[in-house]
Amino acid sequence: MSLEAARALTLTDDHAQQVKVAKAANGQAHAIRRLLTTDKVATTSGAFLFVGQDAYAAKGGTITPDLFSQGDAGYADQPELVQELAEEKLDGIADEYRAIGWYEVRAQLDRPYDLYMKGSIYPATREPTDAEAERFAAIEAEIEAIAEAEGEDSARIEPLSKERDAINEGLRDFNQQQVVIGGVALWISQDGTLGKSFYRAKAEPKPKGTSTGPTPLYSNSLCADLSRIKTKIVQEAVAADPALALDLVLDSLAGQLLHGAHSYQMALEVQAKTITTTVADELMATSDVRPVEETMATRFASVPEEGRFEAIRAMATDDKMALLAGLVAMTVDGTVFAGGSPGKRHHHFEQIARATGVDIAARWSAPIALFDKMRRAAMIDLLREEVGAPSAENCASIKKKADLAVNVSGRLPANWLPAPMKIGAFDEPEGYDDADMDAEDTESMMDDEMADDEMA
Hints:
Order of helices and strands: HHHEHHEEHEEHHEHEEHHHHHHHHHHHH
Strand order of the largest sheet: 1-3-2
Oligomer: single chain
Number of helices: 21
Shape: globular
Mean pLDDT: 80
Structural class: mainly alpha
Low-confidence stretches: 431-456
Number of strands: 8
Helix content: 40-55%
């Protein structure tokens, strides 16, 4: 028996059970651990962390310690108590939202599988009260005075900045018009935090003549990955065009400051936020596109953190423009989150993509992994659209999905791109109403790996 297997057996002090489990698991540590914890809940699980050890113990719950784990991890011996306490806590939070007047409140242990079908809603920004405006002005004046007397790195500035940020955050809230038609979904995340999503729950009448249309070729999660790849390629093109980068900054600032647009409607948010474009390596197997942040880290590694402003001031104009282009490129965002829908920001992104003149097909081609992630029916429909019915029917008889993926890949035209990757894929449709904009739920960024793949 290995040392790891012996350690796993310490999860019980029943010698007869140790012998029985060791034999059944053939001495394999992971199998022993699984057999001994089948009826338990790990104290590192989301549900247990959400409940908390104190609340669990207060109800008489006991824990089997894992003596050889990192920290104080172990297993809750009463999983039904953990579930009961978790549901009770969730219901209490749900009642708070119901008391506010939300049209629909849903609370369950796991994230609802159908959230990707809901249209998300977002907090509105209200005007500050007289007291808030007065305090905000006082904080600004105090920060300015401290910075002038003691320097901008004074420790006294940080708490004031946090208070100012808290006031700004408090100005964003759902208004009554949103509450009366809105829904709230509550669940427990894997790290034990409360997951929340706000969506339109009260259905609006559909225009006559509309239909749900055919089943989409690409699952939500795959469409999200393709939009990230497209964003990565456009970012690369923007980084190579400083003049365009300058135009993008001016357009974003003018849109927000002159025309009242919201930052989340712009494909370029003027704030220090890098847009994540990470996708599985298998989807990038046919491309040599590098993340712009890697290129920037290499080219401008000499820019110091201390004395950065002076170093930038001393740069040659060409270097400044290259730095501008790279930093702007890192904020360009054309991604569509799993379950989200294209909105104003994506229309703006398509304008940027056209302006770069980039040839998407020259920077990326569809690898076999793309087709592996598609449904069988979707691949047949794709062949029917791109090549014709005879080719689709010919491949429909292929039994193994892996073989079908290879055949579909080989039959598609050269330089073929999936629809979400094409320039213009998210153009603003005719008759689009600004009131229908749907900037995606930011919380879904942390849950892109939800059960969308099951839909595939």
